[in-house]
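Q: Here's a chain of 142 amino acids. Please give me its 3D structure as tokens.
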Amino acid sequence: MFRLANRTDLLGVITMSSTTVDPTPAPPRGTGVAGRKLWTSIVDSFDLDEHELVLLRQAARTVDLLEELESEITSGGSMVDSPQGRKANPAAVEARAQRITLARLLSVLRLPAGEVGDEPANARPRRRVGVRGTYGIRGAVS
């Protein structure tokens, strides 16, 4: 990938020169081991647009948060005592919500699963679709 840079020579004429830009973006600052692993596995395999990198940053942070929550669940157990009696560990509840968030972030990226040609001949093509429209009643006149 090249970036064009404007330069002015001795006569005041603007010339264009190209400089090489590192095509692999670095993981976000503060990313943990699990987040970095996810980041590098995707960035090394795919060329992502800026909006996709934003989603991947959030996915990497979510993976790191899940690691923290899992260690909390491991040390405290899945159930905790409260004044109202035994209840689910709040970290387990939050981990469930974060898993749903991670699944949604990764599904929006629309990364292919497997190698090219692994899909059956009658498989539906993956396509990028926009936000769903408003829901209506089928067969109703609008």
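Q: Can you summarize the key feature?
A: The beta strands are 2-8, 14-20, 79-82, 85-88.
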